Amino acid sequence: MLEKAKSCIESLQSNPLVMKLLHPTGILEDPISECEQAILLDVKATMPNGKEVILHLKAKLDNYTIDVESNTIKVNDVKTHGQMLNTFDESKVKYHYYREIALYMFLLSLVAKHKYNMPNPKKQANYLVVSTVPNFYSKVVPVSMVEIRKGFYEFQQLLRYSAYLMCYKGYSFDGEPGKFKL
Fold first, then answer.
1. Most exposed residue of 76, 77, 167, 174, measured as fewest CB within 10 angstroms of its CB?
2. pLDDT tens across 76-117, in order?
3. 130 phi and psi, to 5 degrees?
4. 3-state class of 88 per DSSP?
């Protein structure tokens, strides 16, 4: 298992496209590029019956870039893939990876707006995919804005459904007392 992990890391590190995304350079100033950072957000949902519930969101981004010079934010999400890389698109759809990356993009845009005064940055996202089967190939798969919009729509629907379950059905998602726990 350790050898497989090392091979995957070596594959990503030897891919110049991946390295360029993880270590971006700017014209006058290098962009902010961070790995393994968590973003937390509490969202208050008010239901038609007047009940309110707080939804706790947490995302741990593999890598992101905030480029103030070009007014661009970028999310790079590492994905291991247990098959040949040419089958990744099927997994992307099956596991709704675009929904996850849309959440990351939404939260990063809030950080850019409130911490770096970037109210409307350009948005970019990529999957950094590495196969966990020999020869451990890796590639960069850009995420389209259509996929991000689709993912954000799904994400919003799940938030609404979660708020509904908590307000009308007594479900609890965070260990707080409630009728049911998921």
1. 174
2. 999 999 999 999 999 999 999 999 999 999 999 999 999 999
3. -130, 130
4. helix
